[in-house]
Write a structure and sequence with these properties.
Elements lengths: L2 H11 L15 H4 L4 H10 L4 E5 L3 H12 L3 E6 L5 H4 L3 E2 L1 H5 L7 H21 L7 E5 L2 H15 L5 E4 L9 E5 L3 E2 L2 H14 L3 E4 L2 E5 L2 E4 L4 E3 L2 E4 L3 H4 L10 E11 L8 E4 L2 E6 L2 E5 L3 E2 L9 H14 L7 E12 L6 E4 L5 E5 L5 H16 L5 H4 L11
Parallel strand pairs: 1-2, 1-12, 2-8, 4-14, 12-20
Antiparallel strand pairs: 3-7, 4-6, 5-6, 9-10, 10-11, 13-16, 13-17, 13-18, 14-15, 15-16, 19-20
Helix pairs in contact: 1-7, 4-9, 4-12, 7-12
């Protein structure tokens, strides 16, 4: 493992509480022994920070508030009540499909995504949360056969096995590969579970909108001011873009999804082909997702894109035509120019930025939350280790 990968993985895992942070992930198992309660206690004693405000109640914000409160910090979480990208997503924990052969993900980011995925798997088992295990990658044409064959080869470099298998009954394709590691959670259920976990740990929930951040103080829409020793920004630029210069790097990307019920046959696990994914969820099948750059209105559904998505999904799984579309929705994903998150200290004193995970907000939330804990604890070299995600990398 190269030095930068080792630094990023160390940054992800060290400082985590030993109570539920156990994983079989080969990318950070070597560091786990160094990150138990004794080290955590020493790090807590080494910092003068005791209170934190987290702005944003999406996956990253909620997980961050939970991890900080579990570590003993006084935490307030500000929730403006809007349904964000986390609610509108598919809840994919797809580090293999999304990153392993992607030219947009450098090696360190691939290792980071896999390590965060490992954290999620452990956490979900701990709280007995529902999860759709495994994913089937289907090739619909020769180009996709070539891509998935290459993906299987690349995955072996990470000790991950993509097993060739028969195209599942009900699907239309030339070949298929099964990935046990990639999975999906129900984002709406998980948001509720994370809120409950936060409340149980003593997080104060503040239902209000942030209008400004100035000199370590948060100004709310009702005129109230809040202050804390550390403020964590886990939301897009729409709330604080004028106050936090690094957020100017973010641009909104609109994603549309839909749900179908009543089909004769549905897959038993996640099915992915190209941009399309099918997720069995109760009596419905969730279909995602479109991608539209520089969008501003999440409420408005683009009908041609919506129709194109359904037609592509039906071509992959023809029995969808026998069902009915029961829900359609959209969300705005915050994206950086290089597709990697913003994670680290802002040039604003006492502010940490943790946002911009784009399509991988759920996947990266666990890792980013633990990195925020490390930054709050003032762990030596934390900022240096996270330099590839530095929030100011687009302004220098």
């Amino acid at each position: 493992m190269c030095a930068v990968v080792a630094q990023l993985v160390r940054a992800l895992v060290c400082g985590s509480r030993g109570r539920w942070f156990k994983t079989t992930s080969p990318y950070h198992a070597m560091f786990a022994a160094k990150c138990g309660p004794t080290m955590a206690s020493a790090l807590k004693m080494a910092t003068s920070i005791s209170s934190c405000i987290v702005v944003g109640a999406g996956p990253i914000g909620l997980f961050t508030a939970y991890v900080l409160a579990e570590a003993g910090y006084e935490v307030a979480l500000i929730d403006d009540g809007r349904r964000g990208a986390g609610w509108a997503s598919g809840g994919m924990l797809g580090a293999v499909y999304e990153t392993i052969d992607s030219p947009d993900f450098p090696d360190f980011a691939k290792h980071y995504a896999l390590a965060s995925q490992g954290l999620w798997q452990t956490f979900l088992r701990t709280i007995n949360a529902p999860i759709t295990e495994g994913s089937l990658f289907v090739a619909r044409n020769e180009q996709e056969v070539e891509r998935l064959t290459s993906l299987a080869v690349a995955a072996r470099q990470f000790d991950i096995d993509l097993r060739p298998c028969a195209v599942p009954t009900g699907a239309s394709g030339l070949g298929a590969w099964y990935c046990a590691r990639d999975s999906a959670i129900d984002p709406r259920t998980m948001l509720t579970l994370l809120r409950r976990a936060c409340l149980k740990c003593g997080v104060s929930m503040i239902h209000n909108a942030v209008t400004e951040l100035h000199d370590g103080r948060i100004m709310l829409a009702d005129g109230e001011e809040l202050s804390a020793q550390m403020i964590i920004i886990a939301t897009g630029q729409e709330a604080l873009g004028h106050s936090i210069p690094e957020l100017a790097a973010l641009s909104p990307v609109k994603g549309q999804m839909l749900a179908v019920a009543g089909s004769k046959r549905v897959p038993e696990t996640v099915v992915r082909a190209g941009r399309v994914y099918l997720i069995p969820r109760g009596d419905r099948l969730v279909i995602g997702a479109t991608s539209q750059d520089d969008a501003e209105d999440a409420a408005h559904l683009d009908l041609p894109s919506h129709r194109s998505l359904f037609e592509e999904a039906t071509a992959l799984w023809p029995d969808l035509a026998s069902g009915q579309i029961v829900e359609s929705w959209a969300g705005l994903r915050p994206k950086t120019p290089d597709g990697l998150p913003l994670l680290g200290f802002s040039q604003k004193q006492g502010v940490i930025i943790a946002t911009g995970a784009y399509r991988n907000g759920w996947l990266l939330a666990a890792g980013m939350a633990h990195n925020v804990l490390q930054l709050v604890r003032e762990v030596p070299a934390a900022t240096k280790n996270l330099q590839p995600f530095a929030p100011n990398r687009f302004s220098t």
